[in-house]
Amino acid sequence: MADDFTLQTNIDKQLDLLPAYVKEWYRTKMIAGRSKRTLYEYLNEYRRFFTWLIDADIVPEKNIKDIPLSALENLSKADAECFFIFLRERNLLNTNKPTNKSVSEVTIHRTYRALSGLFKYLTEQTENENGEPYFYRNVMKKLEIRTKKKETLSAKANKIAPKLFLGDLAKQFLQFIMDDTSAEGYVKKGNLSNRALSTYYRDRERDVAIIALIVGSGIRLSEAVNTDLKDLNLHTLSVEVTRKGGKKDHVNIAPYVIPYIEPFLEIRASRYKIDGKDANLPLFLSIQTGLPMRLKGAGIERLVGKYSKAFGTEITPHMLRHALATDLYMKTGQEGIVAQQLGHASTALVSHYAHIADSQVKDGLSLL
To answer: Is 150 exposed, middle or buried (0-12, 13-18, 19+ CB in 10 A)?
Structure first.
């Protein structure tokens, strides 16, 4: 598909700018089945890091691809720390606009994770002519990067609970998006311009189908983006997705969301100018450019934010996943079932859904 082609084109452009040993890293990770999207994000991080090495006069080279392995092997702890101080004190990455907003802690954590992975590869997984790693000194292991405040599961649960559309609230949200007549519907509450109204009627069925699929199955944003028509089976109430690590998984869909998905399937081919019989085409499309393209993650994030803000609480697609997980735990009380539905290898990441459910129980008790 065009989106896959664009991603690979962007990856190739990044690789052309980077040193040969980064290309080796990329090849190894591709063989291991890592997500191309993740690898592309990591390549961006490497380019920023190498650019800083040049701009800060840490290395004498003027071109990124000429930076030798020795520059990483001999990078001092002080210089490595300066890079992360630079991230915390500089303006937003990838913009020339003046702003006082600093790089987020999430971005810094991602950068550290990416660089740690590269240094681990170079010091443990590579092999020279003598069968030894390219070098042994891993400066990233000497850094202490603390990016998140420690919180108890209860504290996290209390923070996230108000942003979850649980139970009937999820159903009300779907109805709200479709409502274009009442004073409490999206069209009236959204106070839409003529252009926004035209876009709404063009994409309404698609938008509500996306939200319904995520809140009714708990699949990740990236999994929704990469879903093709052939992956959706409303007869078995399931969708096939590719989980992290490239693993295929069949995910169950809650029956109540099907009426919000079926209308989209009926208008999908004509509305988005495609061959409706081609099951290999993306399930969710955009024709904003005039041509049918796979709808990207940023587009889904925008539409979820737009509708939820008008509904009363602005949320992200990931919060819809949280809502499904919490509802499922409240109904079953089984962490294993929730982990299976979300595609987690263990129940360790499910514990905070139990705490969210507990807080909901307490709220219910207060009404007795």
So the answer is: exposed
233: Cβ contacts below 8 Å, ≥ 6 apart: 239, 240
Annotated active-site residue in 204, 206, 220, 243:
220
State both tokens at 334. 């089984």
Domain spans, the chain:
2-142, 153-365
The two most distant CA atoms of the chain are separated, in Å, by: 74
- 51, 64 Cβ separation under 8 angstroms: yes
CATH of domain 153-365: 1.10.443.10
> Between 186 and 92, whose confidence is greater?
186
Query: What is the C-alpha separation between 120 and 128, in angstroms, rounded?
Result: 15
Of the candidates 321, 322, 352, 355, the residue annotated as catalytic is 321
Chain segment 158-174, per-residue pLDDT in tens: 666 777 888 899 999 99
The pTM assigned to this predicted structure is 0.63
